[in-house]
Each structure stands twice: as structure tokens, then as C-alpha cells.
Amino acid sequence: MRFSISFAFIAAAIATAQAATVLEKRTVTLFPTNGKFDYQLGGAYTPPSGTMIVTRDRTAAPVVGIYNICYINAFQTQPGSETTWWKNNYNSLLLKKSNGAYFEDPDWPGEVFLDTRTAANREAIANILNGWIDGCAAAGFKAIEPDNLDTFTRSNGLLTKANNLALAKLIADHAHSVNLAIAQKNTAELGSSGKTTTGFDFAVVEECQQYDECDDYTDVYGTNVLEIEYTDSKNYAKTFQSACSARGSSIPIILRDRDLVNPSQSGYHYEQC
């Protein structure tokens, strides 16, 4: 009898531990395969009819009834008031040159790189980003798009891939803990490590047809890739048609204006395959 009681106790303990493990794994939902997609970072607006997937800034509300992806600028600051906020409150987390000047994105003036070079910095940055991620989850978004993972390629050697991926792992783990999927944004040179090491669930890629690197993403993520081509690229119409011919039946592909403005503004452009 004593053995039976002990066996029952042990069996119950194992079952409890297994149940806890299942709860800890959490589940994420990916977007509908090849669903109609819109990319709205220049301002929120009513998506085109039939849209099933939309990306919006974390400060915008998600669209009811479709798959919403929450954009956060995770490796550098947004220009204007957000950059000022970082400088006033977290100046030590901003990357600086040897002369003490802030390291700004050469293509997007006013956006300062975040300094991922130390574990302490990465933990502090992740603490801020994870608060934004919690806000996305509470608002009803289903996924996170953390932008500018590739700052290490544009930092004149100050930042490293390993350190940026270490920060990405911190926010990926947190996103999963609140049941949000998380995207690898661009950065084709990661190969499979973005998925296998960092934990990215899908990819959001810009101009992969233009730069002949789309296979680098689809080889890793299969049909879980969202592709955006832009109208200011050389031979953009031909590029877009080539992308549609190659992958349009498998993944969502759109052609947009570079500034991603809304339909009421000059320069707006939207096409899908």
C-alpha cells in the first residue's frame, strides 16, 4: 500500500509538471497563407477590400477581423520626439562615435542606433521594447515586426551580428510569452540562424527581388514570408512582375511607395500580385 501511494504521488507530480510545461510553451498564430497584405507604416487607413494581413505602427490601433502585425523600431530610434525621448531618458543606450556624436542612420537622418554592445545595455533596451510588445498584445495585435535588425551592417564596425541577435532573442522570447509571433526583418545574411537560434517565426522583406535574395528567406521560412517592393527602385514595374511570376502564388507580395503614405496623400501607390 505504501508503494502504491508513493507511485500515485509520483505519477501525479509528473503529470502536473508536464501540464506546466505545455502552458509555458504558449502558442503563436501565423498569418493566412498568401492572404492579401497591406503595409501601413506611413499612417493608418482603411485597408483595401479583401485585406487579410496588415502591418501598422505600435501607436496605431489594429484592424478588427484581420491579422495585425505591430511594427516597432527595435534597433534604432524613430525620428523626432521619440529620439528626443531616448536622449533625455536613456542616453547611455544610444550608440555614439569616437568623438561622442550620436551614430545616426546614414539613410534616415534623425534615427539614432541603439547600443547593443553589452549585456547590460541589451537587457535595458529589451526591458523598454518588451513594454511596447506588451502594449501590442494588449491592443490585439497577433505579431511583432522589430525593424532595423541589420544596424550591425551599417555601424562602421561598432555593432556586431552576435550582439544584435542576442537582443533579438530577448524580445523574441518575450513576444512568444505573450502569444505573439515575431518577424525577421530583412537581413538575408542570417541564413537559418534567425529562425533556429533567435526564434523568428516569419520574415518581412523589402526589395528581395530587387536585390536577388528572396530565396534566402523562403528557403528558411517557406511560405511564411511577406514581401514589399518599392516604386522608386530601378525598373520597379518589371521587378514587381518578376516577383509575382516567381512567388506570387505562394506568398503575399505588394508594390508600395517608399514613404508608405495613405491613399489621400500624393505619391500613394499600392499593388498586389
From TrEMBL:
Any transmembrane segments, and where?
Answer: none
Q: Which Pfam families match?
A: Glyco_hydro_114 (PF03537)
Q: Report if keyword Transmembrane is assigned.
A: no
Which Gene Ontology molecular function entries are recorded, alphabetically? alpha-galactosidase activity
InterPro entries this protein is in? Aldolase_TIM, GH, GH114_TIM-barrel
Per the UniProt entry, the signal peptide is 1-19
Keywords recorded for this protein, A-Z: Signal
Keyword check for tRNA-binding, yes or no. no
Q: Which residues form a coiled coil?
A: none
Q: Which organism is it from?
A: Agrocybe pediades
Q: Which PANTHER family match?
A: ALPHA-1,4 POLYGALACTOSAMINIDASE, PUTATIVE (AFU_ORTHOLOGUE AFUA_3G07890)-RELATED, ALPHA-GALACTOSIDASE
Q: What class of enzyme is it?
A: hydrolase
Q: What is its EC number?
A: 3.2.1.22
Glycoside-hydrolase family GH114 TIM-barrel domain boundaries: 36-262
Q: What is this protein called?
A: alpha-galactosidase
